[in-house]
Amino acid sequence: VTNKCKDEDLDYYVRECGDILGVTVNLPPTSRSAKHVLEYTLAQLVEFKKLNQDPDTFVGGHSEM
Fold first, then answer.
1. By CB neighbour count within 10 A (0-12 exposed, 13-18 middle, 19+ buried), where does 41 fall?
2. Does residue 35 carry a pLDDT above 70?
3. Which pLDDT value is given to residue 59?
4. pTM summary value
5. Cα distances (angstroms) measured from residue 23 to each of 12, 15, 34
6. Which residue, 17, 19, 30, 38, is the most exposed by fewest CB within 10 angstroms?
7. pLDDT at 41
8. Rounded distance between C-alpha atoms, residue 35 and residue 21, angstroms
9. Is 17 exposed, middle or buried (0-12, 13-18, 19+ CB in 10 A)?
10. CA 51, CA 54: separation in Å to the nearest integer?
């Protein structure tokens, strides 16, 4: 079934995920395409990562354990 997925199906799935995750309520009604859902989600992820950085935990991308 997955191999039969077309671009239109992927667009639908991303928009539905945006609905389920509550992303679409944060977007204007005219900007609720899959592209906008992904853009908003990525921007939120980047902001989250920026706020939750702990420079003492990681050095050079590797854990100091």
1. middle
2. yes
3. 56
4. 0.70
5. 14, 9, 11
6. 30
7. 95
8. 15
9. middle
10. 9
